[in-house]
Design goal:
This protein has 376 residues and is α/β, with parallel strands linked by helices. It has helices at residues 12-19, 21-29, 68-83, 93-102, 104-107, 128-141, 153-159, 177-181, 186-192, 214-221, 238-247, 263-269, 284-291, 304-307, 322-334, 336-349, 355-375; strands at residues 4-11, 33-39, 54-57, 87-91, 112-117, 147-150, 166-169, 200-205, 227-232, 254-256, 272-275, 296-299, 314-317. The protein is elongated, with a radius of gyration of 22 Å. The relative contact order is 0.11.
Length: 376
């Protein structure tokens, strides 16, 4: 009989299908039966989950204090107690919390529990409430964690002071750098957007939510004459962003492209990437822009600071420093040699975060944990 492994995250489409399929595929290829547990946010009654032998729809609530999570915990514990997993890899704060609580008994029988923190909610500069709520919870839950994985230096330093059996710093979830570095017909990509060869174009990619700080993108570009800003994504703040562009008199230079599947081509159509987030774990969209060879201007926050060396592969500024962000963009847009050098340096730097490299690292960690589980 095949040994079984379980992946857990709060949502399916918004997390599991985006980040974890390569690792589920690898484990399946090694002969394991792969189960996946996540809330169904696809809108489909019976979603297809690649590389998964069994999908379990559990209605997690993103709030750790929600009473709905009591029922989710009971279902998850019954599943774990019944299936006798060799390994459980959990993700997201609520998925990680409930999984580790539910697997306490299973660990006594050899189940290895891995938790990947994709960015602790407590971080340098985080609101006090985040520290009061999430820090003690994560520190306590680390006692029930065989391997605590982090994806940036700041989180890694904190995780090492917790109580997990082991910790590991992994270079994110893996980026398909080949897809974004592949040649693109820049002229055709620009023409599809109604842009000419001489237009100066800045792009940002991400959900329109407060954390992404897109209002500052508009304020920065408003300081630059003749520069077009492309927003790639959707979200709750789109109306607010449009109103801000109107108020600053730059609505004609700010384009909302919506959800796109041709992000690689759009990146190659631009001259610079702007990413002033307030908070990140290790931003995939920034890594994709670097893989495309774009010089990047980002906020000096955890995650982004792991990727960008300011003055070499781009520039880092305070998140709300619209003037500083604008000055950095102006330097890039006015100096093609500088832009090319920064883009090349960024492409080199992001190679460490490429999917094959991360997958190999995770394979080593899986093998080690599974072997220790068999020895228990």
């Amino acid at each position: 009989m095949k040994q079984k492994v379980l992946f857990v995250a709060t949502v399916l489409r918004g997390h599991m299908l985006v980040f974890h399929l390569p690792y589920m595929k690898w484990l399946r290829e090694q002969g394991y039966e792969v189960h996946c547990c996540a809330g169904n946010d696809t809108g489909e009654p019976n979603p297809d989950v690649p590389h998964c032998d069994r999908y379990i729809d559990l209605a997690f609530d993103r709030s750790p204090l929600s009473a709905r999570n009591i029922a989710a915990y009971r279902q998850l514990k019954a599943l774990i107690d019944t299936e006798h997993y060799a390994l459980i890899h959990c993700h997201t704060p609520v998925g990680g919390m409930l999984s580790r609580l539910a697997a306490r008994g299973a660990r006594k029988h050899g189940t290895r529990v891995l938790y990947t923190a994709h960015g602790f909610h407590f971080y340098t500069g985080a609101p006090l409430l985040n520290w009061l709520l999430y820090y003690p919870a994560e520190r306590w839950l680390s006692r029930f964690t065989d391997l605590l994985i982090t994806i940036n230096r700041e989180d890694d330093a904190r995780a090492r002071r917790f109580h997990a059996r082991e910790t590991a710093l992994v270079s994110g979830v893996g980026v398909d750098t080949a897809r974004f570095s592949a040649p693109v017909d820049r002229a055709a990509a620009r023409a599809s957007l109604g842009l000419g060869a001489a237009d100066r174009v800045v792009i940002t990619v991400g959900e329109h939510i407060p954390r992404k700080n897109h209002l500052t993108c508009i304020e920065a570009v408003a300081r630059l004459d003749g520069v077009t800003l492309l927003f790639c994504g959707v979200g709750e703040q789109e109306t607010l962003l449009r109103e801000r562009a109107e108020a600053l008199g730059v609505a004609q230079r700010v384009r909302f492209l919506g959800f796109r599947r041709d992000v690689a081509a759009l990146l190659h159509a631009a001259d610079a990437f702007l990413f002033p987030s307030f908070q990140e774990g290790l931003p995939v969209s920034l890594m994709e822009a670097m893989a495309a060879g774009l010089p990047c201007v980002a906020s000096r926050v955890r995650g982004s600071s792991d990727l960008i060396i300011s003055g070499e592969s781009g520039y880092l500024c305070a998140p709300t420093d619209a003037a500083g962000l604008a000055d950095a963009l102006a330097q890039i847009l006015s100096d093609s040699a500088l832009a090319a050098a920064m883009g090349a340096r960024g492409r080199e730097a992001v190679a460490t975060y490429a999917l094959p490299a991360v997958r190999d690292h995770m394979a080593q960690l899986y093998r080690a944990q599974l072997a220790k589980g068999e020895a228990d």
